[in-house]
Design brief:
Layout lengths: L9 H53 L19 H8 L2 E3 L19 E5 L4 E4 L11 E6 L24 E7 L2 E4 L2 H8 L1
Antiparallel strand pairs: 1-2, 2-3, 3-4, 4-5, 5-6
C-alpha cells in the first residue's frame, strides 16, 4: 500500500506565491513613497530646529536678533549678515556652495548665491534681495538632502498629494523665530 504524505502540491505553492507577489506589488510603492515623505519631513524639522538654535545662540552671545541683519552681503567672518551668522554659529562643511555643485546642475528653488552646506548634508540658501528688518523677515530656503535629487520645491498641502513632497522648503525668520513660509512646509511640520 502507498502512504499519502501530507504536503503541498507544486500548483498550490505557485498560486500562493503569485498572490503574495500581487499583494506586494500593490503595497510596496505606497510604503516607499511614505518613507521618502518622512525623510523630508524629518529633515525639515531638523533644519528648523538647527536654525532656531543658531538664532537663540546669536541672541545669547551677541544680544542681537535677526531684525538687525542683512542678507545682501556675504561675509563669512561677520555675524551682522545671515551668511556670516550661520557660518559662525552652525556646523558648516562648506560655505562656498554653487549651482555647479548639484547633481544635475540645477539648484532648484534655492534662491541667491549665498548657500551653506551643513555637516548633516542639508543646504541653507539666502536670497540677496531680502533683508532682515523689524518690519520684514529674512527668507531662507532649506534643501533637506543637499545635492541629491530631486532639488525641487515641495508643493504638498493635503494628505492625498504625496507625490508632491520634494526636498526644498521656504522658511521665514522674524527676530528670534523661524517659521514655515509656504503651505507645504506648514503641512509637513504641523501634520
Amino acid at each position: 500500500m502507498f502512504r499519502r504524505k501530507n504536503a503541498f502540491t507544486l500548483a498550490e505553492v505557485l498560486i500562493t506565491l503569485g498572490i503574495i507577489g500581487v499583494v506586494a506589488a500593490m503595497t510596496v510603492p505606497t510604503l516607499v513613497g511614505q518613507t521618502g515623505e518622512q525623510e523630508y519631513k524629518t529633515g525639515l524639522k531638523k533644519a528648523v530646529s538647527t536654525i532656531n538654535q543658531a538664532v537663540q545662540l546669536n541672541y545669547v552671545q551677541d544680544g542681537s536678533d535677526f531684525s538687525l541683519l542683512s542678507s545682501s552681503t556675504k561675509n563669512a567672518a561677520s555675524s551682522d549678515n545671515l551668511f556670516g551668522l550661520f557660518s559662525l554659529r552652525l556646523n558648516v562643511q562648506n560655505n562656498a556652495v554653487t549651482a555647479a555643485d548639484f547633481a544635475n546642475g540645477s539648484k532648484g528653488s534655492l534662491a541667491g548665491d549665498n548657500m551653506i552646506l551643513l555637516n548633516d548634508g542639508s543646504i541653507l540658501a539666502f536670497d540677496n534681495s531680502t533683508s532682515c528688518t523689524t518690519a520684514g523677515s529674512c527668507t531662507v530656503w532649506v534643501d533637506t538632502n543637499g545635492y541629491k535629487l530631486p532639488n525641487a520645491a515641495s508643493q504638498k498641502t493635503t494628505k492625498t498629494d504625496s507625490n508632491l513632497v520634494k526636498d526644498q522648503f521656504k522658511l521665514y525668520i522674524y527676530n528670534q523665530t523661524v517659521v514655515p513660509a509656504d503651505d507645504a512646509a506648514k503641512y509637513l511640520l504641523y501634520h
